[in-house]
Write a structure and sequence with these properties.
This protein is mainly beta. The protein has helices at 9-12, 32-36, 80-83, 122-128, and strands at 48-55, 75-78, 92-97, 100-109, 117-121, 136-142, 153-156, 165-170, 176-183, 189-190, 192-193, 199-201, 210-216, 221-227, 234-236. A six-stranded mixed barrel has the order 1-5-2-4-3-6. Strands 11-12-8-7-15 form a five-stranded antiparallel β-sheet, with no helix packed on it. A hairpin with a 5-residue loop joins strand 9 and strand 10.
């Protein structure tokens, strides 16, 4: 498990919530400055009414496999349906509660949460409600083209080789729909997304380096060059999604 279960999950199991649509085809900045200013014009989907609790990541960046929590510890875990087998990873939500609105990054899954229940970081929860209450009513919606402030980065998973490749894409802003890889002299090959958010080439892509073509839910498509077969290394690029 990459997350500590919410201490309020048992109480919430008996609570009736409004249903929420999956975020698989929806589009969230981890920077504290972006979270402090949440422009309404960036909203990219229908507002969902539900409930929020809070928790703290046990280690790393949750089920989405990010190496660390986002800056400012402003993150959220979604119910299995909204997490959608990692399709929501890396997107952002604007969450509004009694105290105001905060922007959070989708980094995790909340296995025990029903649809409409989101599990915020304690820092994010305190922006929208009194943590002493433990649970609060909220509305939340996906964000269109959030400002990430950094170019794309990539991480090749431990155990990757010329015969098996797993690739994590970091700082893309909107959720992703496609990751393709091409070795020198080869053709583009679509990778399959695992539910822990790595993109997999089961038979590998050779020794690299690779070109990586990334497409998001808003139709942005960019190509990063010379991504190396270097497991466990964060490879920063100058390529931005938008």
């Amino acid at each position: 498990m990459r997350r500590l279960p919410s201490v309020f999950a048992a109480a919430l199991a008996a609570t009736s919530l409004l249903p929420a649509p999956a975020l698989a085809q929806s589009a969230r900045s981890g920077e504290s400055a972006a979270a402090a200013h949440v422009p309404a014009k960036s909203d990219g989907g229908k507002a969902i009414r539900g409930k929020a609790t809070f928790y703290e990541l046990q280690s790393g960046g949750g089920n989405c496999s990010y190496p660390s929590p986002p800056a400012g510890n402003l993150y959220v875990a979604l119910s299995p349906g909204e997490y959608a087998a990692a399709a929501a990873c890396g997107g952002y939500l604007n969450v509004t509660g009694p105290r105001g609105t905060v922007r959070v990054k989708v980094v995790d899954q909340c296995p025990e949460c029903p649809a409409g229940h989101i599990d915020l970081s304690r820092t994010a929860f305190a922006r929208v409600a009194d943590p002493g209450k433990g649970m609060t009513g909220v509305t939340y919606r996906p964000v269109r083209n959030p400002r990430v402030g950094r170019p794309l980065s990539f991480r090749v998973k431990e155990g990757s080789s010329q015969w098996w490749l797993a690739l994590l894409v970091i700082d893309h802003g909107n959720p992703l729909t496609s990751v393709e890889v091409k070795a020198a002299g080869g053709a583009w090959r679509k990778l399959a997304r695992a539910d822990y958010n790595y993109w997999i080439a089961e038979s590998g892509m050779g020794r690299g380096p690779f070109a990586v073509r990334v497409t998001d839910t808003r139709g942005h498509r960019v190509t990063a060059r010379r991504v190396r077969l270097a497991p466990a290394v964060i490879q920063r690029t100058t390529t931005k999604m938008y």
